[in-house]
Sequence to fold (305 residues):
Amino acid sequence: MLNHSHLHGIVPAIITPVTADDTIDTGAALALLGWLKRQGVDGIVPLGGTGEYGALARSERVRYVELCAKEFAGNGPVIPGVLDPGFYDAMDSAKEFAAAGADALLVITPYYTNPTQAGVRDYLLRFADESPLPILIYEIPYRTRIAVNPDVLHELSRHEKIIGMKACNTDMYHFLRVMAGIDSSFTVLSGEDSLFPLHVAAGAKGGIVVTANLLPRFWQRILKLARTGRTEEALILHREAIPLMDLAFAETNPGPMKSVIDLIGVNAPKMLAPLHQANAGIQAALRAETERLLAKYESAASHKA
Fold:
């Protein structure tokens, strides 16, 4: 069974390629997975926010996990998101994804109900107790309005089936307080492209990185620098991607990124309602930035999936 030691490196939060009828585009999905395998990523996270979880039919979510588990086998863990806001729906998803071949689950903090910290703690402890797979906590307060107190995360980190977290809280002091008290059996992965080198310098073992769909080797370079103490060099390299990150998140992710995913040989521009494709100006500017960084940091021979 997967444990915290398997959580490391660059783990892209992958897009969900879909056809005109909102079902999984198998050909495009295989192209994406093939590209990522060739670039040597350390795992994948389908069905997070980048994967448009809430807009995808439940049966298609399961089908995507099955495809990812089959095609990515032997290349790192497949950790689908579980983004349902209620316990029973979330547990149903957990069981379905486990049966489909997932290795662990990325479980979002319960939202909309605005629970107390005790409620968040009890929810995640119960989920871990009943889950068929190990779980990672997904803390993303700018989406959920739920920030988990560091002392609660310290307690949760001691549960044998809670093996890590995706840290998307942009408060760096919060991150430092979390790192100060977690159990040794718990791995923190950065969930913020914009803060990635700082998170790694402060103790993250890698990251669940959105723009690693496009530029996995670029992010691998930053990770290598940051985790070997060359933080200043990592930050200098990271600055090269600030224009790209600004554009990739200028409208709701993954709209901008899907508009340029063809640059790696994946034809998957379609968005699921209620999201739209990014406006033409963002698309054009992001295409130019992506082409620039692909040419500089990805091998020319691997541009086409």
